[in-house]
Specification:
Length: 187
């Protein structure tokens, strides 16, 4: 696409991505299948003479070959004009089976660690600021519940950031209302 933009201004550019029946190792039936990406233009004018290093196609060919694919590029007749075609056949990425405990890997694990940290910090701050820890079982349960309501939406921050923010702010308002309802002598 970069070459078409640089060297074929005004040309019609077609991009096709299609699976093939070819395999990376034709002798193995379970070998990865290939897909082909073809970019063809019908000729045009060079945007700026001397633009580019002249090594773009060689680098692209090296990258495709390193990925286990094949690469071809060259001129092609397109009606009365001569255009250019670049074709790369690449192995399709295999679909990996999901492993157990997927929630405890990557960003999901980070989200849940953030939830645990937020709950711990909320409870720790409550313990440090209270004269008597919680003042009984009911206030302790309310504090734990509000800490959880405030922290659990952090696990949704990647998938539904708007809903997570709404839930956190709602829990914060509920916390404030409970604090006000407790009265000045209990704070």
């Amino acid at each position: 696409m970069t070459n078409a933009a640089r060297y074929a201004e005004g040309a019609t550019v077609r991009v096709r991505i299609e699976p093939t029946d070819d395999r990376v190792k034709p002798e193995q039936a379970d070998s990865e299948r290939l897909f082909t990406v073809t970019v063809t233009d019908d000729g045009g004018t060079v945007v700026e003479p001397g633009l580019g290093t002249g090594r773009g196609l060689a680098r692209l060919a090296a990258a495709v070959t390193a990925a286990g694919g094949t690469f071809r590029a060259g001129p092609v007749a397109q009606g009365r004009r001569e255009g250019w075609r670049v074709r790369a056949s690449l192995p399709a990425a295999p679909v990996l089976p999901l492993r157990g405990w997927a929630l405890w890997r990557g960003t999901a694990a980070l989200d849940y660690a953030l939830v645990a940290l937020a709950i711990a910090l909320s409870l720790g701050a409550s313990l440090m600021t209270a004269k008597a820890p919680f003042g009984g079982l009911l206030p302790a349960l309310v504090t734990v519940l509000l800490s959880g309501l405030h922290a659990v939406p952090l696990a949704w921050r990647s998938r539904a950031p708007g809903r997570a923010l709404t839930a956190v702010l709602s829990a914060l308002l509920l916390w404030w209302a409970c604090d006000r309802a407790a009265g000045p002598g209990r704070r």
